[in-house]
């Protein structure tokens, strides 16, 4: 089955503008509708073009096809086998040891020009792994356009890419997170063992805080000494003597070291902020779980879960809105009157009844499972 262009030199949209296609290119499309003159209006690369078909297709029919030339005529040959319907990237390794600024290893993908029509030189793209094909190649989604590439084993199900050039080929520099150098099965196994209870039980010698005289700097310092940033400190030549993971190594505290390493893996996989803990010195206050999630507007949300002996389970949400902070305190006991007497600069403090469902934000193993590779669809 073939789709024929209505114009002499190729497919044109309703304004008469020619849609640029490369010979040999494989792409997806769909039928919009059949017109009264027998021609079809089809969707290719986000544009509607007119075409002739050698067989009848219903509205909304989707297809994969390859661009072929018959003399001066541009045609689309329908591809029946799903796995044959995608452009394949030629993978070129960069110079040995070449890394991006954030320490990621890099390779170059070379593709036919126009594989990702919206790509411009200098653009950053997310490449999401859709599935593993029968030949072992990964099917990748970039801004809604699909192609295949040999990227080997992966831990994460997404990669970062930088558009190097679009002419005469499309070239992407693809960055693999340093985590990808680890064995995928090991990462999945260790993340599967992550447990907040074990973490809190085995840490806290250096990162505990006193809630009676607490400042924002105290919280930052405690998070910094939690062990999450240990290797980063070493790489930057920073002091590590007060770090929880350093203590675990020097005291041969295997449970603490393993718990912190799993927390580090969780943070790399989450990639949307920070998951950590705060150890407290106060007997009437439990240790706290902390999660900070960045948003796409330059702000973020902080979640803190802990328990007080007098007011019970407490869940605090701190949302930054420009220069203001919206602080929502949820507790089992009603402390609304007490909160009315607390004034914090540039902040609105509110109270609501504690809801156990809020704790789901700390179900990080469920969130990390969505980021791990190897669970792709094959059907």
What proportion strand? 35-45%
Shape: elongated
Largest sheet entry? 8 strands, mixed
The chain-level mean pLDDT equals: 81
Q: Which runs of at least 5 residues are low in confidence (pLDDT < 50)?
A: 95-104, 374-379
Fraction in helix: 10-25%
Q: Please identify the oligomeric state.
A: single chain
What would you report as the Rg, rounded to the nearest angstrom?
Answer: 27 Å
Amino-to-carboxy terminus distance: 25 Å
Tally the beta strands.
21
- The tally of domains stands at 3
Tally of contiguous helical segments: 8
What strand line-up does the widest sheet have? 7-12-11-10-13-14-9-8
Return the string of H and E elements: EEEEEEEEEEEEEEHHEHHHHEEEEEHEH
Sequence-ordered SSE layout with sheet pairings:
Layout: E1 2-5, E2 26-34, E3 40-44, E4 47-53, E5 62-70, E6 73-78, E7 87-88, E8 90-93, E9 105-112, E10 124-132, E11 138-142, E12 145-149, E13 158-165, E14 169-176, H1 184-192, H2 196-202, E15 208-209, H3 216-224, H4 230-236, H5 244-250, H6 254-270, E16 273-280, E17 288-294, E18 300-308, E19 312-321, E20 324-331, H7 336-340, E21 347-353, H8 364-371
Parallel strand pairs: 7-12, 15-16, 20-21
Antiparallel strand pairs: 1-4, 1-6, 2-3, 2-5, 3-4, 5-6, 8-9, 9-14, 10-11, 10-13, 11-12, 13-14, 16-17, 17-18, 18-19, 19-20
Helix pairs in contact: 2-6, 5-6
